[in-house]
Amino acid sequence: MTETDIDLIEGLRKQSPKAQRAMLDRYGRDVFAQVARLVPGVENAEEVYQDVFIKVFAHIGEYDAERSALKTWISRIAYNEAISYLRRKSQPVVYYEDRNGEADKLSDAEVNETFGRPNAETVQLIRAALKHLPPDERAIVTMFYYEEMSLKEIAYVTESIPTTVASKLCRTRKKLYKIIKMLQS
To answer: Which residues are CB-neighbours of 70 under 8 A, at least 6 positions away?
Structure first.
């Protein structure tokens, strides 16, 4: 951990407004992006974003640098707040369901062909396809690809283990591939 992070955490533990502003400046944009990818609607994402930092400021004393990086700890709070929000709102949403196991039959090479060389069209299709995934799967994909988190970090955020995250990511990529093919047709 850098000395800047140590000073920031110390300031937050003392409830310093300057430290709180510094925290928002440093991590606010990433947290909002993470939340906005999971929670539909800017107003809803802003509400969750505020809840995340209220929780961060209230629970900074519980942060343990030995267990995770500060950014990963904040991501875990953001993930949990977004999932809790979605459960509370429980709006009916139809997600793609692979009932026949067709996605599992896809080869990794086939899937990598789509995700390996993303162009502008592919990126747009991926964004559209993500909306058809349940929040937990969408979160794993966005943490891995958009936020470039490691499997270990994602496992910490989702309270899972890296091998489970890797399996779920592999299955979800195949699901995304099927959704993209459906959107293209």
So the answer is: 1, 5, 8, 9, 27, 63
